[in-house]
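Hi D.,

Good news: the full-assembly prediction came through. Inputs first.
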Amino acid sequence: MAATQEEIVAGLAEIVNEIAGIPVEDVQLDKSFTDDLDVDSLSMVEVVVAAEERFDVKIPDDDVKDLKTVGDATNYILKNQD
Amino acid sequence: MSKIKPSKGAPYARILGVGGYRPTRVVPNEVILETIDSSDEWIRSRSGIETRHWANDEETVAAMSVEASGKAIADAGITAEQIGAVVVSTVSHFKQTPAVATEIADKLGTNRAAAFDISAGCAGFGYGLTLAKGMIVEGSAEYVLVIGVERLSDLTDLEDRATAFLFGDGAGAVVVGPSKEPAIGPTVWGSEGDKSDTIKQTVPWTDYRDGEVAKFPAITQEGQAVFRWAVFEMAKVAQQALDAAGISSAELDVFIPHQANERIIDSMVKTLKLPESVTVARDVRTTGNTSAASIPLAMERLLATGEAKSGDTALVIGFGAGLVYAATVVTLP
Ligand SMILES: CC(C)(COP(=O)(O)OP(=O)(O)OC[C@H]1O[C@@H](n2cnc3c(N)ncnc32)[C@H](O)[C@@H]1OP(=O)(O)O)[C@@H](O)C(=O)NCCC(=O)NCCS
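Then the structure:
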């Protein structure tokens, strides 16, 4: 079953917490991965791979650079999940 | 049909000695910053690299190899005449014919050992080790010298922000010989030529000769694609090598991945869920990425500093341009 927006944000929060050690409650739709959440471009690759597994989506390298905020990633997953 | 007598090899093979050579010139990040817009902090945080070694004119591929091999031979407690084959993996020896392995075999004083070069990028050490093991078990050589050697500084575009800080020079060598017990596990190896564009030489030499490009060829890469592949696909290969050898991560003492980037190493350790008890090679910090030389150089350093000891069980994995990879479990010399 496809995940809802809420479930995706909660899932991303857990992933970001695991990879960058940021408290889950700080991971909000308007937060930028690099500027607010201490996720640099290489950690972002790890976030993306974890999100792919968790939400059953494919996020090609070329699309990763467009995912600046948690909201961008959430929308991408909402649109592309199976 | 006449009967052909089969050759007779050793039951198993093992690494008996290791040696390394690092060029005398140590190059800190400040030198890299003279040609690219970056910072020491960025380079350290994205790659772990603080310094690397660059070879001078005398530190040729052959000269560095002879130095590293001499140490490996002494460490193995054999003499050069006992070496039956010399396998050299390099992508940065700029004279293709004859193979540099022949010059090295001669300078070391081997007794006309078979000698040849292979090209398998950053997986070259594992490819060479696998060939060596086959020769020893099959019986075409009693002792085989496997050398990984690079002068990547000759193939680095110092104005390329994505690679200028990554590469270094050096040589690492091991002597592989007969063993009563298995001490080199099954190799898990392969190639993914559909991804050949992710790490490659910019243009063929002939394009430069013909004036089609102004810059001497260099290694370029799609950094994030390589990072993703290295961390996630190579962790699977590393796990397969452990499984093939029948070694659990709890039984593992040492992890020596190709020293490409410390961030790749960190992520692999996490993905593989290696326990804290496993010693992890992080030679990349002071050596940079030396391609085929990185695993034996890191092995030598871990043994020299006492972080690893003879008899330890180590997982080695190399991966790089091709894309190619090779992983196996070995007993340290
Ligand atoms: C090379 C590598 C460290 C680059 O990191 P990256 O995160 O992919 O870098 P990107 O090119 O995506 O750039 C990310 C940001 O850093 C900046 N940047 C890139 N290179 C930089 C440099 N040398 N110094 C400072 N900043 C740099 C970019 O401009 C970009 O900034 P922006 O987000 O504000 O636009 C990394 O991709 C890597 O190591 N990959 C594996 C390579 C490897 O090991 N290859 C050999 C395998 S055998």
